[in-house]
Amino acid sequence: MELTSPTAFAKDKIEALQEYSALAGNSVASLFTRPHYFPDMVQQADLIGFGSLPIVVLTGFFTGAVLTLNSANSLERFGSLSLLGQLVSVGMVRELGPVLTGLMVAGRNSSGMASELGSMIVTEQIDAMRALGTDPMKKLVAPRVASTVFMLFFLTIISDLLGLVGGSAVASLLLGLDYRQYWSSAWQILKFQDVFMGLFKPLVFGFIISTIGCYYGLSAKGGTQGVGRATTQAVVASSVIILLVDFFITKFLMAMFGYS
Amino acid sequence: MSTPTSTIAVPSPTPPESASPVVVFDDVSIAFDEKQVLKEISFQLDKGETKAIFGVAGAGKSTILKLTLGLIKPDRGHIRVLGEDVTTMKEQDLFELRRKIGMVFQESALFDSLNVRDNVAFRLMEEGESAPEEIEKRVREALSFVELENTVDLFPSELSGGMRRRVAIARAIITRPEVILYDSPTGGLDPVTSTTIIELIVKQRDVYGTSSLLVTHRLQDAFVMASHYFDTQTGHMWPLRDDPKRKIPMKFLILREGEIIFDGDIQELAQTRDEYIREYIS
Fold first, then answer.
1. Residue A219: pLDDT above 90?
2. Which of A116, A259, B123, B279 has the fewest beta carbons under 10 Å from its own?
3. Where does the pLDDT of residue B15 fall: very low under 50, low under 70, confident under 90, or very high at 90 and above?
4. Per-residue pLDDT tens for B246-261?
């Protein structure tokens, strides 16, 4: 393995950050300049949104179910089993729904974008597109970013709902609780701040997933091996950054809404 | 030698106009990862002329084509294409200029998620100025030129290597560009298919008078181009000896270690005393 000097390493990282920032900025700017690629956006929305639905449904349902199982045990010790709906509701809507949906979509779509764009890079299709007078940023990146942000928002809502359904199923079928009490407490505990926090996160996560997937795809070098490397890096980077950013968004929004 | 036949309605041959350069390289240098690929090279491509670029692998041949399109920028020097300095243009302005230039990539670079029709029509659909019927007509014309009318609904993965190159040529010529750049259009193909591709390039040169830069490893391809012309009356390619008065607008450019060691026509090439060039062409 070739050793790299600390200076060269730092320069590489700063250059990568600069290129990523430029791509992220250009992808947003491209949405507001002509030409617009609505058919490509719809196609991507179908691939990203509808295509991710099965994993999001399963993830949401079983996360809610297992959260209920684990929480019930703790709540029962304090005689507060009636609060089960509240706990699952807040946990899913504020945190688990957005984060787990983000991670699932990152695993499926960030890798998909990196491999698709990476393959186009190594087979000179991106150069061919530029040579044909089309801006890949507008044709390929902007539709993916817009569609991921848009669809992740709705996927998160579906995931939240399925999480509550999973929790309700476990509560009523396994724990013998009244499902009306579960839904009533789940509904009443939710405040505007909780819903806002839960629905703001997927907008940021969608942007992270798509821009990182596109960045690693467009930076792929070294043939098929390079495409494989870009795919792995895209999933790892987007997943880790989602978790990091989640902490800071949560901290910021809690401070903003005056949570103690 | 097989000869191309075509149902395309071709205009009368366009004689090359007086030497007005369409591509000018002026003192251009570029390095990748501290390796100097091109060193202060200068040359020009005149209107209606075809210039074949030779050199060993890594000599910088494909880099010249990418520089011409503005896909990469040189470290120093200036490149003027159709009167515009591509070294100082912004990417957005370059997209406009590139619409006047056709490019055939080494491995065709067809969009693998689009069928042949959509690949060939890509530029017209992106421009959004033509009606669907007009686009279909132009696609059929371009595919007829390369004799692949029956492949419109196929995907690139269903085509042979030679067919992919021909589709790439159809994609490059559909907007009748003023300049076409060919990057090893016959690389990796069998001799028969290579000859078919070369005939198409000669046809494009002699029928439309298009200026072109042709990167190739195969000297025999360039010699065929320099010694044959396309006759629109018969729809066939003929050796020059059948019409000795005809001038072929063809030049040769040889690169060695990033520098131009030869730039001239076939007679000058045949008469050169440079040992390296003589060994290269022998």
1. yes
2. B279
3. very low
4. 778 888 998 888 888 8
Residues from chain A contacting residue B164 (CB–CB below 8 Å): none
Under an 8 A CB cutoff, do A127 and B71 touch?
Answer: yes
Where are the alpha helices (H) located in B56-131, listed in sequence order?
Answer: 61-69, 91-98, 116-127
Q: Which residues form the domain of B143? A: 112-176
The better pLDDT of the pair B16, B236 is held by B236
Q: Tell me, yes or no, whether B169 lies in a domain.
A: yes
Tell me whether B98 touches chain A (CB under 8 Å). Answer: yes
Q: With CB atoms and an 8 Å threshold, state whether B109 touches A124.
A: yes
Distance CA A149, CA B236 (A): 56
Residue B86 · residue B66 · CB < 8 Å: no
For residue A131, the chain B residues in CB contact (below 8 A) are: 69, 71, 98, 101, 103, 105
B139 with B29, same domain: the answer is: no
DSSP β-ladder status, B211-215 and B50-54: parallel
Per-residue pLDDT reduced to its tens digit, B221-234: 888 888 888 887 88
For A81-191, where are the alpha helices, taking DSSP H only? Answer: 84-90, 97-105, 111-122, 125-131, 136, 142-173, 179-189
Report helix, strand or coil for A143: helix
In a domain, residue B46? The reply is yes
